[in-house]
Each structure stands twice: as C-alpha cells, then as structure tokens.
Amino acid sequence: MNQNRQITLLRHVQGNPTPEHFGYVESPIPEPGEGEILIRNLYFSLEPAIRGWLEGKANYFEPIPLNGVVRGPTVGRVIKSNDPAYREGDVIFCMNQWEDYSVCSVESILFEKLNPKEGVPLSYYVGPLGGSGTTAYVGLHEIGHIKAGQTVVVSAAAGATGSMVGQIARMRGCRVIGIVGSDEKANMIVDEFGFDGAVNYNTAGDITAAVMALAPEGVDIYFDNVGGPILNAMLLAMKVQGRIVCCGMISDYNRTENPNPITNLWEVVARQLTLQGFLLFTYHDKVPAAQAQLAEWIAAGDIRVAEHITRGIAKAPQAFCELMSGKTKGKALVEVDLTEEA
C-alpha cells in the first residue's frame, strides 16, 4: 500500500448523519517531522462525541472542517519514529484521524504509549481498557463516589460505556439497573452482564415508575449517557443527596437545533442532588489505575466485553451512522483493513 486512505467530511451534519455526509480520498503517506512519529492505525473508536464535531461549531474540541479528515481515538503501531523515546512496533493510543497512517507527537491529544498484555486484543484499548471502560470507572468513582450497597442506574446500558458502568457497579457490590431501547438489549444486560434489572424505555410508558418498581427506595447514582426525557424521568427517581454523573447527551446529538427540554430540574434542589458533567481527559491521572483494575477484572472473567466490529476503513461512515441510530450493542469500532501492508 503506497496511499493513505482517508474518510473526510463532505458537508456539515444537521439531524441524523448519513454516509452521504462523508467522503473517501487517497493521499500520499505522510512523513513525520522532527520529534514526530508515523502510526499505522489499526482500530478507530466510534464515539457519539464525534457527532458534535461534524456541525461546524466548536464545543470542547474544534469542529472538523469541510473536506477535513474525520477525527477520533485510534490504536495503532509506530512504523517510523523521529522521537528517540518511541520505536517501530510500539503501540500508541491517540486522537488521530480516520485514515491508514497518522503523524502525531507526544503533544497530541490523548497520546499514550500502551503496554499491551499478552492475550488481550488490541481492540480492547479503544473500548473496555480505553475510553469506554475508563470513562465508566472514573465517572463512578470520582463523580459518583460509589459504595457497596448502593443502587446504580445507567442509561444506554447495552452500549460501550453503559455496559461497563453496570459491570463495574456490580463488582463494587451495588444493585444495578439498566435503561435500554429494546427487549433484546434488556435481556442482554441481565443475562450476559449481570444487571439486576432492565427498563425498556420504548415500552415502559412511565420511566420513573418502571425504575421505581425495581428500586422502590430510590436511586443513589444515575450514570447518564442520554439526557433528554430519560434524565427528566430519573430526576424523580433519585434519593435525597443522590448523584447524577453526566457523561453524554446522545438523545440531543442529532437535534442540537431543538434539544429536549428538562422540566424537572427543581428536583435537584428539592432532593439536594449533585449533578456533574465530566470529560475523561480532565481526569487523565486517574486512567492508569482504572486500566489496571479493569484489566484484572477482564482477565479473571469478572467483566465481559461486547464488541461491534466493522471491518474495512471504507465502511467507517456507515458504522458511525449505525451507532448514532442506536442499532449497535457493546463497543462500536472499525478494524482497518490490513490485507495490504506498506
């Protein structure tokens, strides 16, 4: 392979993303400059947060420009290094782009040299041992202040982060309830991930009542991945001085021009709730300990990993659109086609 295949943004996204928003180009393989390294990307992590970078508006990261290569977390191997601290074959997690080859440096966002453990798939380092797992762990411990005996509810519970939240809470001795969008996902989180109960928001009707039926004394920690109507309902199910960990608002990512109203915010006062958002890179110093504990649990079989892997760089746009439509279960990622190597 002597070209760098890249997925670009053809037009800004309003509403639901479709494959037509993206383009495919081939460019020369870049050369690393002084102090830089060239990485052969192996896996792209598909993240709901990417949706916010496709609108042409800045949020906590700059937007992806039109005709620019789509940005996202990746795991790859160093194939050329102009930094003496890194050598060919090193495995790197970094905020790179949807392309075969990326140039980066230690100043790059989320840059981390990995020390892969024998028998652990590299894909895990963009999932349960990467952003999904560490986000769940850090959010529960640093924001939720989790303790044994508590009741934890998590939305998008069959997804990459939600499934890890539930299993981590279970390992900490908590009662765990997941909110999902189908009976299939409800069965999955109970039967495969060990949740104590599940609520299908599409059939439950009154979500607050459905949660309270499973947790009649109320909820200590709500790990929110969706915002919108489910957050609104959960405000009425919290215990006094409960904690709400705000990780994502996926219900509004495709409707930023008309976001869902939250009408029960008075409950934050009445119930003396703590409601806090967080971004993982703010807690970067907590990540190594989180990874170590998660690796131990996964190796012991105490935490199960579910992956939704799409193979082939050209399929990345379709895979991302499926993620944003709620069709996937577990960690969604793209495995780059390695049939032709440089």
What does it look like?
The protein has 342 residues and is α/β, with parallel strands linked by helices. The chain has helices at 131-143, 160-171, 183-191, 207-214, 228-234, 250-253, 266-270, 287-299, 316-324, and strands spanning 3-9, 22-28, 37-45, 71-81, 91-97, 101-104, 112-114, 151-155, 175-180, 197-200, 219-224, 238-246, 274-277, 307-311, 331-335. The radius of gyration is 20 Å and the shape is globular. It is built from nine helices and 15 strands. It folds into two domains: 3-127 and 306-335, Medium-chain alcohol dehydrogenases, catalytic domain (Quinone Oxidoreductase, Chain A, domain 1, Alpha-Beta Complex); 131-281, 3-Layer(aba) Sandwich (Rossmann fold). The strands form three sheets. Strands 3, 4, 5, 6, 7, 14 and 15 form a seven-stranded mixed beta sheet that branches. The protein has a six-stranded parallel beta sheet with strand order 10-9-8-11-12-13, with helices on both faces. Strands 1-2 form a two-stranded antiparallel ribbon.
Q: In the CATH hierarchy, what is the superfamily of the largest domain? A: Medium-chain alcohol dehydrogenases, catalytic domain
* Helix share bin: 10-25%
The span between the termini is 5 Å
Strand content: 25-35%
Number of helices: 9
